[in-house]
Amino acid sequence: MNQQLLKRFLQAKSVWVFSIVAIVLFISARWSMGIWDSPEFAFAGANFQLTHAPGAPFYILVLNLFQNVLFFITPYKAAVLLSIICSCVMSVYIFKIALMLYKNYSNEVIQNESWLYGLIAVGIGCLNLTVWELSYEVEVYSMSGMFFSLVLYKIFQFYFDRISITFLIKSVSILIFLSLGVHKLNLLILLPVFYVIIRKAKYHALLSNRFVSLLMSVLLLAITLLFHSLFLKFAVVIALFLQESFAITQNLAFPILGILLIFIVAVLWYYKKALTTTILFASLFSYLLYMPFLNSGSEVGGYYISDTESLVNHINANQFGLQKTPILLGKRYDEKIDIVTGKEKINENEIWFPRMHSTTYYDVIEYPKWDDATSINDHDGRHFTWSYQVYTLYLRYLGTNFLGRSNFHKNSGTHINHTISSYIHNPNASKGYLNMGKTDYLGIPLLFIFLGIIYSFKNVDLGITLGITFLLTGLAIILYLNPSPSSLRIRERDYISFFSFIVCGFYAMLGILFIFNYLPKKIKKVFLICTGVLALLFVLQNFKVQNKSNEDFNEAFSTWILEGIPENSVVLANGDNLTFPYWYQLANSDKSILWINIELLHLDSYRTQLYNYISSQTSFTGLSPNDTVLASSAKTTIINEVIPKVDQESESLSAAILSFLNHKNKLFIQSNWAIENKILVEQGLSSPYLLVDDDLTDLENRALNMISFKAADVDGMNSQEMNILIDFYIKKANNLITQLIKNEQIDLATQLSKNVALFYEKFDLPRDGNAFNIAARLYELKENKRAIELMENSIEQNIMLVEWMIENKSPMNRQLTLEAAESKVNLLDQMLVNYNKINPTYIQNNLSKIQKVNTNYLEWKNSVSNDI
């Protein structure tokens, strides 16, 4: 009996798929604290709090349970493990779907070959760059992908007559109910669900027309989305009615609506009517998952939800202003405000499908650049839609995943490296910084995907099912969200379309099968072996890039920051993504630091949470920020600048924080907030993520603190950390070195300069303006050999970078590409002028190369200027 069980276990293909993917992800995962939202989710799970909008209640419920069961490892590592398990389950069901598609599309089903096609679908769909990274990140996407694959599996089971319509509706209802507690993106999978049910059930002769069936499916999805919106509005109406009419807590609104939903679904099932609409009503149950989080969260951090109205605002992501984003009808940004004065315009000039709508300062500056006006295109938004929303936010990521990419450095809002040729081959970036994270698939996966899209329509209904899933979860969601240029200001957004990239695995498999079916029998096996090897090479290339097992920079960096802050301090921080690492660290330490997030202070719930915490810690009865004791304090100026003046409670919070500061040692603020608000400008710091003490006189301790963060303490860092965290560490170090030299503290200046230089040597950091400035400080400190090497490397790399930018200039957005190149050319000119004073012979020896770069740049600049 045991031998039979073992034999069945070894023959179970799903077990092997799960095991292979688990091993790959386990080896390549980043087990130390990551950047962006990962610390937030780990923190929220450990403290049983909602995350940023829309909240992910089911994910947090499971994560909290998982972290408690695995109490012997850190909450962050437990969260990574949960992501890996979910990704493995997703891979298993992608494999199973691929086997079903293989049997339907293959001219000759060979059992021994089917598993290879399934593995190809898993390799291309689940182990491409985007999905791989999300597979071990502490985020909702791995669990969301798991539910996506499960629903898709049920759709194909029903289509191939393996389950009944009743079972499909029951299972999909449960899966959608749970998955919406992870991410609202999962609602989109309902369109293929509705389409397959309509096509198979054939309720009416009219529905035998595929176009009519598709229209009906779109209508059902639209009704579902409408019901979700109405349900939330109705919840607020009931909550306010209970509070005003009966003085009953708002928080009974969702339970009352839950009972109503149960009654509706019970009636539908009793009379066996409108079974499809059961999915609609069952999906609304997902909002009941939020109930345990009302009034949860005692820590001063995360999102504190006190009542139904606040909860609905959170679910609707009002925090991000999504409710103000126009979809069908609205005003352009220049019809909302006067571009010169910034004053609001009063007019009724609304247009259909307004693509350029945001009035934030950054977006107003960037819109014309992305719209790339010429005599043909007069800033009407069409080019912006194509160049930014379609191309940059979707097609570029499609190319990154299936054509290849030149390096892993984030664009951070600049339009560099966006041509297809630069993804396939970049001859200039042969080594070093420009070549980090390079992949080169020679376009083969994308070729198979295109062939698979065509071949999928061999079975028209299956082709439509795959097609609407691919489009709706990719390009359509981008156009629906209507993102502005600021969405790329900080980080890439490829994760929005990751469902679409999973579907590409099926298309790649079908493309291979298409070729295989029409090949001569003699070479079929050779072709299949070759494609298997190509898929393996695809995964191996990605493994080399996505192996983050040695990355520990963010954890080391945040630990160092916290160690430099005295006990009982108050920190005013900027940016929720880079606040949560410190909240996570503080939640798992005994250190007493109040870390206040400036951006979250516009949320009523956060201000209430903060006020309640401070009230429990100190007494401040009758204290006002205008009191004579505090009025002359610099702290008062800062706090009054930070706290939004929206109501009387805001005034009370200002007083509470100031009173709290009187009992604490020091106030720290983040320097980018200080500079933007004209505070501490004299320091010349530009870092959003390094903290500045309000006591600026102790240079020695500040230098020793900077020196204590050593390259030897870090094993690895990723591109995001390289471009953001270490960059700002170096900027602050460079400024501090200058002050130390002026103060004749030469030993400390030398130590700090060498410490920074070690980061460049160990991690091959970009030889940019920061590097050249550090080299200049080293030269000033008589460290000539190291200084000259770093200066010349900086000049050579910037020459190579400008050459590369000119060669690979984007045809999509010439202004943005030119602007990026111009900043590099100006930087290069400054380097050359300064280095000419030190080593004019070097400049003379490289004069022809320098002149060639300048000539090519000026020719390009003139051609663009003449056209625009």
Describe this structure in words.
The chain is mainly α and 868 residues long. Helix content is 63%, strand content 3%. Strands 6-5-7-8 form a 4-stranded mixed β-sheet. A two-stranded antiparallel sheet has the order 1-2. Strands 3-4 form a two-stranded antiparallel sheet. Helix 10 runs antiparallel to helix 20. The longest helix has 37 residues, at 210-246. It is globular.
Quick rundown:
The chain has 39 helices and eight strands. With 868 residues, it is mostly helical. The strands form three sheets. A four-stranded mixed sheet has the order 6-5-7-8.
State Rg: 29 Å
Helix/strand/pairing class, anyone? mainly alpha
Beta-strand content bin: under 5%
The shape is: globular
Q: Major sheet: size, sense and barrel closure?
A: 4 strands, mixed
Strands of the widest sheet, in order across it, are: 6-5-7-8
> In percent, how helical is the residue content?
55-70%
Mean pLDDT: 78
The number of distinct helices, counting runs of at least 4 residues, comes to: 39
Please report the distance between the alpha carbons of the first and last residues.
78 Å
Unreliable stretches (pLDDT < 50, length at least 5) are 412-431, 621-632, 672-696
Features:
63% helix, 4-stranded mixed β-sheet, mainly alpha, 868 residues, single chain, 8 strands, globular, two-stranded antiparallel sheet
Outline the secondary-structure elements.
Elements: H1 2-11, H2 13-28, H3 38-47, H4 57-69, H5 75-105, H6 111-126, H7 129-136, H8 141-159, H9 165-179, H10 190-201, H11 210-246, H12 253-270, H13 275-284, H14 308-315, E1 329-330, H15 333-336, E2 351-352, H16 361-371, H17 382-402, E3 404-405, H18 420-424, E4 439-440, H19 444-455, H20 460-472, H21 475-481, H22 498-517, H23 521-546, H24 553-563, E5 569-573, H25 580-587, E6 593-597, H26 604-617, H27 628-631, H28 634-642, H29 648-662, E7 667-670, H30 671-676, E8 691-693, H31 699-707, H32 719-723, H33 725-742, H34 746-763, H35 769-780, H36 784-807, H37 814-836, H38 840-845, H39 847-867
Parallel strand pairs: 5-6, 5-7
Antiparallel strand pairs: 1-2, 3-4, 7-8
Helix pairs in contact: 2-5, 3-4, 3-25, 4-5, 5-6, 5-8, 5-22, 6-22, 6-23, 8-9, 8-10, 9-13, 10-11, 10-20, 12-13, 16-17, 19-22, 20-22, 24-25, 26-29, 28-29, 31-33, 31-34, 33-34, 33-35, 34-35, 35-36, 36-37, 36-39, 37-39
